[in-house]
Amino acid sequence: LIPMNKATAIAFKIPTDATYNFAVGTVITVLNIGAGTLTISAVTPGTTTILSAGATAASPTLTQYKSAACIKTAANAWYVVGAIS
Q: Which of these, 78, 6, 74, 21, lies nearest to 45 by C-alpha position?
């Protein structure tokens, strides 16, 4: 669980496999405690793919007290599911 807590906008960045190679199947749960909107995105968007059902598939957002699971499905590929907007 990664709790994020900031009154202004904040970002949770998923690194490339070259920086930190999480195993396929890894799930990282992100919880936004703060009032600022949390954006989940890749450190290097051209290398790491983030997909979600949010308004912007590559950069889903979480409002206060919402959480999402980041699931690694392949090399440099993640799906984000949960209370995203």
A: 78
- Could you count the other beta carbons within 10 Å of the beta carbon of residue 13? 12
The Cα 51–Cα 45 span in angstroms is 11
- Rounded CA-CA distance 42/14 in Å is 5
* Strand ranges across the sheet with 66-74: 2-4, 27-32, 66-74, 77-82, 49-52
- pTM: predicted TM-score of the whole model, two decimal places: 0.91
Q: Which two tokens stand for residue 77?
A: 């590929």
Residue 85 in tokens: 């907007």
Mean pLDDT for 17-23 is 96
